[in-house]
Amino acid sequence: MMSLIEAVLIITGAGSPEELEESEMERFESLAANPVCINLASTARMRASGLFSDYQIASIQDYIGRTGDILSATELGRVPGFTPPVAQALALFLSFESHSPAGKRHYRSIRQDATARAVVKEAGTTLAGKYHLSYGERAEFYLSRRESTTASAVIYGKRPWKAVLGDFNARFGQGLLLWSGFSLSGFPSAGSFSRNGSGFSGTGSFSPSYRGICLDYSGRSTMLAAGATDSGALLASAGWHGRSASIGLNGFLDSGKSGFSADWKKGLGHLTLFGEAAWDDGAAALAGTTWAPEYKTSASILLRYYSPGYSAPGAGAVRSSGAVRDEAGIAAGFARKWLNCTVDMAVHPEKLRLRKKNYQQFKSVVNASPSFEWGAWQISPVIRWVERMQVSPSGDGYSAVWRHDLRLDLKASKGPLQGCLRLNGVQTADYKAGGLAYLELGYKTARDTARFQASIYLRGTICDTPNWTSRIYSYERDLPGCFTVPAWYGQKKGLSLIAGISYRTRRCRQRLYFRASTKDIKLQYQIWTW
User: Fold this and answer.
1) Using CA atoms, how far apart are residues 37 and 139, in angstroms rounded to an integer?
2) Do the Cβ atoms of 344 and 318 come closer than 8 Å?
3) Among 4, 146, 219, 325, whose Cα sits 20 to 30 Å from the Cα of 87?
4) Tens digit of pLDDT for each residue in 42-64?
5) Domain ranges of the chain
6) Which pLDDT tens digit goes with each residue over 90-110?
């Protein structure tokens, strides 16, 4: 079965775990623990999960209306708008409970889960905790505490409406104006160009984006949403969606500052067109297309522009945030089976006029991830080659500064045995090379073990880079709900051990994890009841 990290990479379009963030992994961990019942969930519930586009939700509902409930990921892969790999990735966050033979029944079981975590470092001990309560597909409550407290209550109406009180996220359109939480910093894969907005949604993240109250309505073809934050900001959106097209209008008003945008998406067979235009003390726009002519083959292209005055504080489109302005760029991507390639070029017109540093940028990514069997072993090598260039003024001309990054991961598994070897080399502008290597060995009992599961992983890492400029980011396995991608630089060594056990009964599941490394010690306990 696909791992959680593998599923998240497919759904988000990220090329590797190093491009994800803790808040996004928190969201997917919560969805995995409390899956969306695809046959019984309302339109508002499915949209709030962020797993589906409006077209996919309409396609699911049409399929169920014509042929009956979807009973497996394999069947979901045959629904228009889905492919088998995407369906298998989504399966980790879905359940397939069906209506009773005598007619529709309401799925109203109560589920609870709680997490308690302690982290011991030289600077002291940090405590954190989470609690989540769900009442079928009707209501949810989140409570989290680390440095501060997060609380969120969500009610899903019988009709397709949803109300959120407390902390919430707002994700609309392609993210030019309103997109809180995780946003990819670049174009790591051909699947990362287009976004699926989830509207307003409750959150149990340790770092929420908004706090206040919001309400949205998701009808068969219309969507209306409005929210107010405790700081006095007003957020609103209105949209229409059909089987092959959608449009939306989004806006905000905060302390006299306002902004608005219009987004659209249109499906033309194998071709999808999408874009958004926004205004907030300046203009911004993006437009792109994705072409998927056959299974496991796709190509994407995206144009973008941000004027020098653009400053939307709540933006989060791909390769953008509230801080991005003065930029014009073009990106293209291609994917074929296990090969994924992207290229991105950008220029900063105001910097170019004033001859400032880094007025032009270039980045290319080549990711090859074939998989094959060698006897009883499953072998999965991953080769990732990234080239970056920044152009700056130099005398009467210019100078180009390159960074070369080549990484090889060799993953192997045989039943419960797992192993991974990474070799990562970089070369920066001063032509000084650096490198990182790690070896991880692990053991994990079969996922379908009825009552008891156990896992243990041991990793050793060495790093030798000249300076901070040549730093290397490396994802480290951590406790569930934790996400660690440290920056390695200088001459360093690291050792980490993580072990976990899980015990399940008919109405309860408990999980205990322990992690020790050269930097800290962590202990975590989780319990689920239903």
Assistant:
1) 13
2) no
3) 219
4) 888 888 888 888 778 888 888 88
5) 112-127+415-530, 355-412
6) 999 998 887 644 444 445 678
